[in-house]
């Protein structure tokens, strides 16, 4: 297809469209711009974290003081997204805005901007595979992908979209490095962007590792001896290791540089980058010759690298999924983004179409294009895209949270549908060709999720009826004024409510849905599961709890057994160490609140 001047402007028009779409959605009657609310638990926690740093918290302090009370709740998050939220807020403060409002609006708008940039990055990455006049479709696909659009929405301060942006930049650079062995800088940039993405979250490995495996496969099968692909792999590995070194220097306290952590950037990631460099550097020395010799060298060196990593860091391959605690598993089971796309159940196909959308077409487009590509640079780039696509779609089906990584890769590959369709209909009349391309565009964007929604037998389950706004208003009425370090502590059975309540009220909270806060979770569950009043009271005193809040209509950390404290409270059997708090009618329909002998929740 012919390159045209207007195609150079299309990606920037796409960014504008993406921002307009997000703003329009945010201004719906129940949208976050209308209701002045963030969209999810993590966004409120991110706001707490950023405000704590802004207010003088330590750079290396990853403990949220208003959760996990009284000692605070540790998190595994890193600082890049914090800085992206704080930078425009700091500019707004210089121009006269209040710090609280500036941080709020920056958190509200950061993800739409990152999503728009991701659409642009998808177009750039797609240009390594497809003509410029086709590559813009990658941005449209990513804009229209349902879950990617949701993660990038106004009102969500979430690091997944930043990971997606950096992974797309890494993929685009690596596609160019595979296509042209002389593009040495692209290989290093690919590794560097992947390292920055890992700094934000280990999910970046879902894109980077399959792409590196593809370079290894190309090294083995290269008729020219594979040296070019091995060298590109070495450059990418060193770029990754260099970015991880930067992340360690900036985001990890010097005394913790040698501490292995699987859920955030640490020496484990540096070892992984050096292990990749060991493999690709080793085959440059030992793996020259026929494809069998190259295969043996690559397999042997890879086995040595994996064995070394496994000995030094057992379970390193599990990354952020290294969670075994039964209570945390129970909590994760209540979080939709941690669930699989259950295509094997009745209605599962509808879920696949709804959650993956038109990006599914990439599963057919990339293999078809590879079958026609021969053995040149175009074929090498398509091999990288194919392996990355296969890995990310498997991850997306395994857990919804990984759809964001799949959506970016699939948008890059799926844009090639226009090339295949144009070739298939080139003998038709101009109107027929135009109609075919329009239908292709619709299929890549809206038809799959719309069809999936139509196939669903029943409406999606509504959210648990634990309204946060009236509870926050009631608590703030008990204790008006700004938050302080010594605010009273609340224990609630629904730990997904606590970050927003911590932002909107002058209370601290015990629980929060984060795996590093398992101690606070265990104590919360222990209170509501207690059959011995002395044990429950001991835990409440340990946590210095002033108020106990129970949402009677939603899932929580409590047992259904009738003899437990949680069940007895719901039945109206209140032990002597708790006193029931009278609630307004709209709150009493959902909540039970009890005070303890701790210092008064209303005393300032």
UniProtKB/TrEMBL annotation:
Question: What keyword terms does UniProt attach to this protein?
Answer: Membrane, Transmembrane, Transmembrane helix
Residue ranges spanning the membrane: these are 9-27, 83-105, 112-130, 136-154, 161-178, 198-221, 233-253, 265-286, 295-317, 352-370, 382-400, 406-425, 437-455
Protein name, per record: Uncharacterized protein
List the source organism. Answer: Zavarzinia compransoris
């Amino acid at each position: 297809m012919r390159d045209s001047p207007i195609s150079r402007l299309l990606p920037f028009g796409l960014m504008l469209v993406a921002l307009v779409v997000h703003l329009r959605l945010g201004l719906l009657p129940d949208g976050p711009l209308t209701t002045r609310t963030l969209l999810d638990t993590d966004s409120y926690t991110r706001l707490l974290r950023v405000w704590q740093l802004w207010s003088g918290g330590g750079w290396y302090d990853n403990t949220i003081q208003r959760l996990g009370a009284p000692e605070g709740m540790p998190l595994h998050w890193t600082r890049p997204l914090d800085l992206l939220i704080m930078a425009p807020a700091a500019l707004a403060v210089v121009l006269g805005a209040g710090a609280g409002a500036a941080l709020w609006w920056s958190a509200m708008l950061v993800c739409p901007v990152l999503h728009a940039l991701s659409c642009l990055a998808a177009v750039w990455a797609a240009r390594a595979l497809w003509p410029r006049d086709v590559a813009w479709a990658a941005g449209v696909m990513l804009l229209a992908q349902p879950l990617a659009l949701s993660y990038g929405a106004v009102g969500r301060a979430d690091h997944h979209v930043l990971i997606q942006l950096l992974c797309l930049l890494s993929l685009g650079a690596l596609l160019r490095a595979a296509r042209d062995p002389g593009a040495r800088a692209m290989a290093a940039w690919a590794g560097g962007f992947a390292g920055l993405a890992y700094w934000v979250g280990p999910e970046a490995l879902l894109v980077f590792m399959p792409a590196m495996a593809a370079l290894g496969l190309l090294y083995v099968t290269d008729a020219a001896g594979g040296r070019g692909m091995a060298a590109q792999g070495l450059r990418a590995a060193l770029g990754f290791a260099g970015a991880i070194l930067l992340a360690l220097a900036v985001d990890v306290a010097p005394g913790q540089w040698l501490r292995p952590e699987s859920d955030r950037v640490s020496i484990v990631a540096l070892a992984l980058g050096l292990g990749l460099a060991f493999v690709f550097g080793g085959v440059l020395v030992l793996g020259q010759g026929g494809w069998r010799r190259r295969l043996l060298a690559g397999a042997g060196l890879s086995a040595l690298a994996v064995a070394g990593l496994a000995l030094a860091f057992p379970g390193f391959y599990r990354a952020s999924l290294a969670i075994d605690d039964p209570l945390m598993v129970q909590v994760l089971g209540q979080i939709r983004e941690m669930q699989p796309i259950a295509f094997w159940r009745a209605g599962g196909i509808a879920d696949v179409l709804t959650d993956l959308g038109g990006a599914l077409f990439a599963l057919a487009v990339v293999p078809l294009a590879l079958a026609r590509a021969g053995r040149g640079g175009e074929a090498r780039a398509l091999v990288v895209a194919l392996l990355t696509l296969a890995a990310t779609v498997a991850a997306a089906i395994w857990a919804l949270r990984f759809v964001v990584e799949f959506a970016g890769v699939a948008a890059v590959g799926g844009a090639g549908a226009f090339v295949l369709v144009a070739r298939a209909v080139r003998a038709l009349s101009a109107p027929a060709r135009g109609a075919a391309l329009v239908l292709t565009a619709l299929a890549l964007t809206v038809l799959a999720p719309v069809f999936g929604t139509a196939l669903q037998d029943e409406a999606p389950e509504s959210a648990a009826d634990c309204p946060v706004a009236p509870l926050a208003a009631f608590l703030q009425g008990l204790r008006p004024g700004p938050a302080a370090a010594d605010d009273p502590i609340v224990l609630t059975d629904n730990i997904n409510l606590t970050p927003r309540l911590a932002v909107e009220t002058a209370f601290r909270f015990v629980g929060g849905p984060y795996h590093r806060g398992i101690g606070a979770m265990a104590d919360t569950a222990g209170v509501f599961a207690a059959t011995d009043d002395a044990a429950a009271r001991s835990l409440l005193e340990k946590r210095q709890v002033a108020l106990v809040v129970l949402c009677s209509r939603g899932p929580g950390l409590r047992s259904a057994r009738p003899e437990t404290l949680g069940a007895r409270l719901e039945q109206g059997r209140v032990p002597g160490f708790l006193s029931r708090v009278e609630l307004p009618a709209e709150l009493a329909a959902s909540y039970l609140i009890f005070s303890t002998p701790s210092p008064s929740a209303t005393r300032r």
